[in-house]
Amino acid sequence: MTRHKRMRLATWLVSHHLLTLDQAHEVMRAQKEQTGHIRELFGRIAVNKGYISQEALTRAYLEKEREEAAVRPGY
């Protein structure tokens, strides 16, 4: 059984022109700078930095899931 690999949110947002590559890298740098075992989620950091609105992020999550569901094999 082949498992479809999910696209990372950062890659999806950049490929759909919702974030620039520089913004995505900045968010990833911010994640790496966090200490402790729990890191803030990519989307939350992007919203906090003002790169994307919460509403646009929510729509992006839903669209990403819809696109990935369309290519997953049926069970």
Produce a short descriptive summary.
It contains four helices and no strands. With 75 residues, it is mostly helical. The mean pLDDT is 89.
Kindly list the characteristics that best describe this protein.
75 residues; mainly alpha
How is this structure best described in words?
This protein has one domain (9-71). It has 75 residues and is an all-alpha fold. It is globular, with a radius of gyration of 14 Å. The model has no long low-confidence stretch (mean pLDDT 89). It is built from four helices and no strands. 60% of the residues lie in helices and 0% in strands.
What is the topology?
Elements: H1 9-15, H2 21-33, H3 42-48, H4 54-71
Query: What is the multimeric organization of the chains shown?
Result: single chain
Question: What share of the residues lie within helices?
Answer: 55-70%
Ends: how far apart? Answer: 11 Å
Computed structural class: mainly alpha
Question: Mind summarizing the main beta sheet?
Answer: none
Total domain count: 1
- SS summary, helix count: 4
Large-scale geometry: globular
SSE pattern: HHHH
Number of strands: 0
Low-pLDDT regions: none
Average of pLDDT? 89
Task: Please give the radius of gyration in angstroms.
Answer: 14 Å
Strand content: under 5%
